[in-house]
From TrEMBL:
It comes from Paenibacillus rhizosphaerae. Pfam families: AraC_binding, HTH_18. It comes from the Bacteria. GO terms for molecular function: DNA-binding transcription factor activity; sequence-specific DNA binding. Keywords: DNA-binding, Transcription, Transcription regulation. This is AraC-like DNA-binding protein. PROSITE patterns: HTH_ARAC_FAMILY_2 (PS01124).
């Protein structure tokens, strides 16, 4: 079952106790510039094709056998390439389920990779790929089954997947090879600089001076590699940081968060925030406060 619109498994259709979403062998190309940020954890496995994954301020080059674990609050965005397949499997889950299920049973915390490393990419060996892909096939069979027992077995196998990842990440990891071209390296340098300065007034002339690269060339390759403009990325990074600040401190004022994230005035902050999040910062803050 390779579905693009898969229901959540949980306690009920209306209000699931613990969310679990599984998408096996998903092959639909991703929309450029489609950033994501959420409060659940994610496992991403790349089966076939060519692509990049931008997580935080890091560009990850995808190859068959690439496994990524993600703490969802970090801004992340996949990038596929026209004319190339982009086949992946994704598992999104609320960590509360596995935290509650394993707290008094196991001596090793299966969520350790997400909590300690937060976002991490590893290239599986051929042997590890074979084992992991067999687990994913079995997960799909159980997830597709209509009966409740299969769904419970699905959850148990998800736990085994988490322990598999723990075991893989306990091994010494080889130093990752450099980017396949200078373009990725230039864009990575720009992302790293923006991460340190997104809350200030970043200008193209400034990037040109600091990174020793022609600003017009940088604009072109940034969009080619990431699928968005530099300033689109900066605004999205600011909005994501605002969401994190609202979550960490719901009592903090909208005005304070506006200026802390690099916006110069409240009206512009509200306009951009609503454009991407579908609600104003005040509405978002009210929603967060209601959940505490």
């Amino acid at each position: 079952m390779a579905s693009n619109d898969v229901p959540w498994i949980g306690g009920s259709d209306v209000e699931p106790a613990y969310l679990l979403k599984y998408e096996y062998l998903k092959s639909v190309p991703v929309t450029a510039g489609n950033f994501q940020s959420h409060d659940h954890y994610e496992i991403f496995y790349f089966h076939e094709g060519k692509g990049h994954y931008l997580i935080g301020d890091r560009i990850h080059v995808l190859k068959p056998g690439t496994l990524i674990v993600m703490h969802g609050l970090t801004l992340h965005m996949p990038k596929s390439f026209e004319g190339h397949p982009y086949v992946r499997t994704l598992l999104n889950f609320d960590p509360g389920y596995f935290r509650a299920a394993t707290e008094h049973v196991f001596s090793i915390n299966p969520l350790q990779p997400f909590e300690r490393l937060r976002n991490y990419k590893v290239q599986l060996s051929i042997e590890e790929q074979n084992e992991f892909e067999e687990m994913l096939r079995k997960l799909d069979r159980l997830y597709s089954a209509p009966d409740a027992v299969s769904h419970e077995r699905f959850r148990v196998l998800c736990l085994d997947v988490l322990f598999f990842i723990c075991q893989v990440l306990m091994k010494p990891v080889k130093e990752e090879a450099g980017f396949p071209s200078e373009k990725e390296q230039h864009v990575q340098n720009a992302l790293s600089y923006i991460e340190q300065h997104y809350m200030t007034d970043v200008r193209l002339d400034q990037l040109q001076e600091k990174l020793h690269i022609n600003k017009y060339y940088l604009v072109r390759i940034f969009q080619e590699i990431t699928g968005m403009t530099i300033f689109h990325y900066i605004y999205k990074r600011r909005i994501n940081q605002a969401k994190i600040l609202f979550l960490l401190d719901p009592e903090k004022s909208v005005t304070d968060i506006c200026y802390e994230t690099g916006f110069k005035n409240h009206s512009h902050f509200s306009k951009v925030f609503k454009q991407w999040e579908g609600k104003t910062p005040t509405q978002y803050r009210r929603l967060i406060k209601s959940q505490f």
